[in-house]
Specification:
The chain is built from 26 helices and no strands. By secondary structure, the chain is mainly alpha-helical. Helix 14 runs antiparallel to helix 15 (355-372) and helix 20 (453-466) runs antiparallel to helix 21.
């Protein structure tokens, strides 16, 4: 017993050390992609009162995403979003915790196997260093999937180990509610738990005939049911609705089209599960507009069809050992198969979506191995070791692309050269480094083809403005505004207001004869379109300060304080004083 315990501790130590060594470089990475939006740009990460308001609102990506728990964790860990390092350490710790929790549950499921410790170690390593987990570990925005997996794997542990019905009821209720408040993927447990319990019975790990076992199962489903109801109530009373149609209709082509998309998504996920080095670009990996738009789509569809046929055959022939891991995997990816309309358009499939399903599939394999007592030869161990080393090599080669926005979008653009999203963000990253001329030169073919012209021109105009080249920037902004009206945008469109403020900021930062007056006129126009735009109000106050127009300064300060009404008076004064560079108190 002591020897077995020592083996377990040594194996867990090896697992933790390898995981840390492989992923430690991510702690020096910066903000990438969505990180810049909701960690750096949003005011609520800089003020507690505004943060409390944000917890009562949908997540910025979609009006149907309500995920307050990860935001709370990020708020507690972050350092005013100045440095990305605390967030990356958090992600690494979450991944390490998930790996060790998975290892613990694997040991429990493999209790009848003579190779339980080494098999659990290899399986946990397959998860820990798998390149499909890169999005979750190297990208701060991956916290939603990582934290959800933590609560989900704890649900499995409590369900399998907790004997006291009261403890079981409280813990499962709490964990399922936390999982739901972390990510909507918690809906998968509607399928996962029935499949999980069915196969535990088939493996002899759960005895339905015993009254105590039936009570525990009833307790599990009762806790999940009331946790689900509680989540829906919290969601409804916080947001004021349960679901709002997004207006994105991917399925208007009919049932056959919809089925094709679902099969293709299944193929995408299973291919990456079995062959992790396959196309790991994080941007629009599956075309959601067409069922077959490339040879890759045919590969995904074929793989998905093969998996469905395999599951069907295994179910009809009662080949439980084949069916178990595949059924658990399909149950766990159910929420991201888009059986219902999506919340956001082109994000049809992402590797982070199979972070948790990979864990579930490994649990299914563990039940199979524990049941059939597979004999492992030295060759099998050697092959397993090679697979783990290959995964480490691929992961270490992919991870550096997530260092910052420039390295990330340069990589994505090289993989997806036709992606407008990749191009626009790559040029924006170049512009942030002051490479305006390079951006203009590289983006010229896109201007000729009118591919994403407006965002690109706006990015480049802003770049020249920051360098003080007002003449070039002014010309580019004129083209942008002309394109807005040619394409039918209203003069009262918020995007027009944003352009007005960009131009006004350029004029204010580069004052010359007549420019301040131009800036003042543009700010007024922007505020007519969007009266509550804090950036515009503050810029108007700055212009008024430079012109010694104290009445206007006072009006705009009071107006700004109304916009940030979530702050107390002292906090409002402090924030506005920092923005304006003067003491606001003297105007009040």
């Amino acid at each position: 017993m002591v020897f077995e315990k020592n083996k377990t501790v040594i194996a867990a130590s090896i697992l933790a050390i390898i995981t840390l060594l492989v992923w430690l470089p991510v702690t020096g990475f910066g903000f990438v992609w969505d990180d810049n939006q909701f960690l750096k740009s949003e005011l609520y990460f800089h003020n507690f009162d505004l943060f409390l308001q944000a917890l009562q609102s949908p997540f910025f990506v979609s009006q149907n995403y309500y995920r307050p728990l990860p935001l709370i964790v990020l708020y507690l860990v972050g350092d005013d979003a100045v440095s990305a390092s605390p967030y990356h350490w958090l992600l690494l710790c979450i991944h390490l915790a998930n790996t060790l929790l998975l290892f613990s549950l694997l040991l429990i499921l493999l209790k009848n196997s003579s190779f339980r410790v080494p098999v659990a170690l290899i399986a946990a390593l397959f998860f820990a260093v798998n390149p499909v987990t890169t999005e979750v570990v190297a990208w701060i925005s991956g916290i939603f999937d990582g934290l959800f997996a933590t609560f989900a794997i704890l649900l499995f542990l409590v369900d399998f180990r907790a004997r006291s019905t009261s403890v079981r009821l409280v813990l499962i209720f709490f964990l399922y509610l936390c999982a739901a408040l972390t990510k909507e993927m918690a809906a998968a447990f509607v399928l996962i738990f029935p499949v999980w319990h069915f196969f535990l019975m088939k493996a002899g790990l759960l005895n339905w005939k015993e009254l105590s076992e039936r009570k525990r199962l009833v307790c599990t489903y009762t806790a999940c049911f009331f946790a689900g109801i509680t989540y829906l109530l919290i969601r409804y009373f916080t947001l004021g609705y349960l679901y709002i149609p997004s207006g994105v209709d991917l399925y208007s082509e009919g049932v056959a089209f919809r089925v094709g998309l679902i099969v293709k998504a299944i193929g995408y996920y299973i291919l990456h599960l079995l062959y992790p080095v396959w196309d790991i670009s994080p941007v629009n990996p599956v075309d959601s507009k067409l069922v077959f738009s490339s040879n890759t789509d045919f590969v995904y569809f074929a793989a998905g069809s093969l998996l469905i046929m395999t599951v069907t055959f295994a179910a009809l022939k009662r080949k439980w050992n084949i069916l178990l891991p595949l059924a658990l995997f399909l149950a766990s990816i159910f929420p991201v198969l888009h059986l219902m309309p999506m919340s956001i358009g082109d994000n049809f499939a992402h590797l982070r979506f199979i972070y948790f399903p990979l864990m579930v599939a490994l649990l299914g394999l563990a039940i199979v191995i524990g049941k059939v007592s597979i004999r492992f030869t030295p060759g099998a161990w050697f092959a397993s070791g090679l697979v783990v080393l290959l995964l480490i090599a691929v992961t270490r080669s992919v991870t550096p692309f997530w260092v910052n926005d420039y390295t990330f979008w340069h990589w994505v653009k090289s993989i997806k050269p036709s992606s407008a999203t990749a191009k626009t963000n790559y040029y924006a990253a170049l512009a942030s480094h002051g490479e305006c001329e390079v951006v203009l030169r590289e983006a010229f073919p896109d201007f000729k083809n009118n591919n994403g012209t407006l965002p690109l021109l706006t990015t480049i105009a802003g770049c020249f403005a920051e360098k003080g080249d007002v003449a070039v920037s002014e010309k580019l902004y004129e083209i942008v505004m002309a394109d807005f009206y040619v394409q039918g945008f209203s003069g009262y469109d918020k995007r027009v207001a944003s352009i007005y403020l960009n131009i006004a900021t350029m004029y204010f930062n580069n004052p010359a004869e007549g420019r301040l007056n131009k800036a003042e006129g543009l700010v007024e126009a922007a505020l007519q379109i969007e009266p509550g735009n804090l950036k515009g109000i503050i810029l108007s106050a700055k212009i008024a300060i430079s012109q010694s127009d104290e009445p206007l300064v006072k009006r705009q300060i009071l107006r700004a304080m109304e916009v940030v009404s979530g702050l107390d008076r002292e906090e409002s004064i402090k924030m506005l004083s920092e923005e304006l560079g003067v003491s606001v108190s003297k105007y009040l």
